[in-house]
Design a protein that fits this description.
By secondary structure, the chain is an all-alpha fold. It is 37% helix and 2% strand. The protein has two domains: 42-173, Cytochrome c-like domain (Cytochrome Bc1 Complex, Chain D, domain 2, Orthogonal Bundle); 181-308, Orthogonal Bundle (Cytochrome Bc1 Complex, Chain D, domain 2), CATH 1.10.760.10. The protein is globular.
Length: 334
């Protein structure tokens, strides 16, 4: 489909979706339905998709954005901490990329203000992709198909990290997950969830979980201390927001994670210490709320959390342009 026709079709589809939602009475709840993406640059999305999956943006030629934020696994890697360049163990759990456009900031400590700023971080981190922005751009400039596509998308003959991160961020904006069973309940389908799942939601509300986990993403919009009622003994040296602000009062203040698709994004917490939702609900109840959930209550809250899994992003895998003879070869072992 030609680019202009595809863009027109996408806009028409969004208009139909928005019009349909406008006529639906949404329940007055602290949790809101996820909305389909509202506005995107389709050309940047297609380029960003390739860059997201391209391991040549790493020194090893093996690690891509998708390595730690695997779109087949809930947008994460299901490891306590991620594996970086030369098999280095990362210091913190990889948060999901799904619905990350709804976050107030990126990373657990909020050090990136938006998706664009976040996208450049791992490329130049020696413990992650192990490259530099200059070397990554040099690789892209050595690949004729990328040079042509960057010129078509951005109108420039010279690639810079600014265009690279803009395109990746635009692709990540599309990674929203609407139409969960709980969203359908919010939109009026009272048969979309079971009695136990509804009981779990009421416990979730009445126990105080919604004070932090609210809105479309059920999180991501504030920073809170990990360990309010009882201290949390972390398996990670990460200190949270204080690493950004330098304020001692911000120690162990972490961005509240989204609970969307949470059954897929195990293990939990910034150190990946909780392996199951049952364990995570128990710990959060005691440490954050001072509440010990009974086994039945815990099971009901977990049942509710599993209704938050929405439609996962689906698209054709991008075919990456081949390297040229001038493209620097990866050096995974040195």
């Amino acid at each position: 489909m030609p680019m202009q026709k595809a863009l027109k079709f996408t806009r028409s589809l969004l208009a139909v979706t928005i019009t349909a939602l406008a006529g639906v009475a949404i329940a007055e709840e602290p949790v809101k339905p996820i909305r389909p993406v509202q506005e995107i640059n389709l050309a940047q999305v297609e380029l960003g998709k390739k860059l997201y999956f391209d391991p040549r943006l790493s020194k090893s030629g093996f690690i891509s954005c998708n390595s730690c934020h695997n779109l087949s696994m809930g947008g994460t890697d299901n490891l306590p901490t991620s594996i970086g360049d030369k098999w280095q163990q990362g210091p913190i759990n990889a948060p999901t990329v799904l619905n990350s456009s709804l976050n107030v900031a990126q990373f657990w400590d909020g050090r990136a203000k938006d998706l664009k700023e976040q996208a450049g971080g791992p490329i130049a981190n020696p413990g992650e992709m192990g490259f530099t922005h200059e070397l990554a751009v040099g690789v892209l400039e050595s690949i004729p198909e990328y040079v042509t596509e960057f010129k078509q998308v951005f109108g420039t003959d010279k690639i810079s990290i600014d265009e690279v991160t803009t395109a990746i961020a635009e692709f990540e904006k599309t990674l929203v997950t609407p139409n969960s069973r709980f969203d359908k309940w919010l939109l009026g389908d009272k048969d979309a969830i079971t009695a136990d799942e509804l009981a779990g939601y009421n416990l979730f509300k009445n126990s105080g979980c919604v004070a932090c986990h609210n809105g479309e993403a059920l999180g991501g919009t504030s920073f809170q201390k990990m360990g309010v009622v009882e201290p949390y003994k972390a398996n990670s040296p990460a200190e949270g927001l204080s690493a950004v602000t330098g304020k001692d009062a911000d120690r162990f203040m972490f961005k509240v994670p989204t609970l969307r698709n949470v059954e897929m994004t195990y293990p939990y917490f910034h150190d990946g210490a909780a392996n199951t939702l049952t364990e995570a609900v128990d710990i959060m109840g005691r440490l954050q709320l001072g509440k010990k959930f009974s086994d039945q209550e815990n099971a009901q809250v977990v049942a509710f959390l599993k209704t938050l899994t929405g439609d996962q992003p689906q698209f054709l895998m991008p075919i990456l342009p081949p390297s040229s003879d001038k493209t620097p070869r990866p050096t995974p072992f040195n």
